[in-house]
Request: fold
Amino acid sequence: MREESPVTITSLAKRIVGVNRLAVEKVEIEESEGENSLVIHVRATKRDRCRCGICGKKCGRYDTGNGRRRWRSLDIGNSLRVYLESDSPRVWCPKHGAVVQMVPWARHGAKHTKNFEDTAAWMSLHLSRKTISEYLRISWDTVGPMVRRVEQETSGQNGRFDGLVRIGIDETSYKKGHKYLTVVINHDTGTVVWVAKGIGNEVLERFFQELTPGQRNSIELVSGDGAKWIRETVGNYCPKATFCIDPFHVVSWCEDILDAVRKQEWNEARRKVAEESKGKPKRGKGRPKKDTAAKTSAQKAVERIKHSRYPLLMNPENLSESYRAKLQEVLLYDRRLATAYRLKEGLRAIFQLPPEEVRSALEKWRRRAWSSRIPDFVELQRKIKRHMDAIVATVTHQISNARVEAVNNKIKLTIRMGYGFRNLDNLVALIYLRCGGRVIYLPGRRIDSVA
Ligand SMILES: [Zn+2]
Reply:
């Protein structure tokens, strides 16, 4: 049977705020600068009054604080702004001193209600920062502290250090590549378990120190980019763990060299064109006749190499028809680029081989790199020798490159999103929230809106 009960202002106000434990004093519409807002005057119930805003302990009253305060709640019907207004006296907590008292509708230090902050945090998992700030009518920078407060509440949610068996340690840049974060991921869940500012032994040591000896012992495999600081620190804390190298790091070493070769070839071709045109008379005004402008081979090379970066660096299976044609042309005419390209593809293919064939394939690859007469590749084959065991282990233990790359791209996207945050801790909180496998609910819809 359907039950109907008359709506009172109080019951409606409680529903709007999403908190039952409060006393509504009055509700009024306020007009300012042509915009209407709903202001709900409230006070905490006796049970919630005089509690420390930080620890929640019942304390004695200290003073009236800054008088009346306002918290913004979620808009009604996307247009009417809603505010809660209440006294905000300070209490004296034996541990925290004079602190603004706790309120059941907002987190300590927040200017928005809990349901507003939860909504913003939920949106940050799904939407762009522009959409969020436009919809909620707040600047993106204010979302940072909200994300951080929600993150802190959910941080104990999934025992992130429990059951770590295979982990990946990586450095990732922010602030346009000027600063670095160390990121630890769980390979088996594809989630971020730890993030800290900076890189190096001392930073990574802090991660291992947060683990219990049992948690450290459960780690069987660690992957990374082969950096010395990662290997050393892992060796100290998890001496029994097998070390792997994420395949995309190895391939990116080749890609960097390939791109450098491409630039060299392009500059060389341009230099030749400049030389050829030196002796020639200067062109008059107007367009040259078509037939007289037959291109020299150097000019053709410049054009060919100019737009070849993408087809050379992309995986060939993902190329469009026109890019594939472009690639074929480059490989046909530019021998040095073709050599560099085949070395890159050759190394990439090794990660698809059965484990028992990897070592001999790597040795063969090293001989090819050695005889390529491209100095950077000669150098790289030495590096491959140093990391031989780790590469073999990577294939043996089947570290999925696709998954590692997917997590990495998600982190990069999150960093770009949190770039507007002035505070690094807020950025770190956003990474945990978006990439840490946390479950965030939309207020009032706990069941059907699992993030
Ligand atoms: Zn306290």
Observations:
- The chain has three domains: 9-111, 166-246+410-429, 249-273+300-397.
- Residues 52, 54-55, 57, 93, 95-96 surround zinc ion (CB under 6 Å).
- The longest helix spans residues 247-278.
- Residues 166-246+410-429 form a domain with the Nucleotidyltransferase; domain 5 fold (CATH 3.30.420.10).
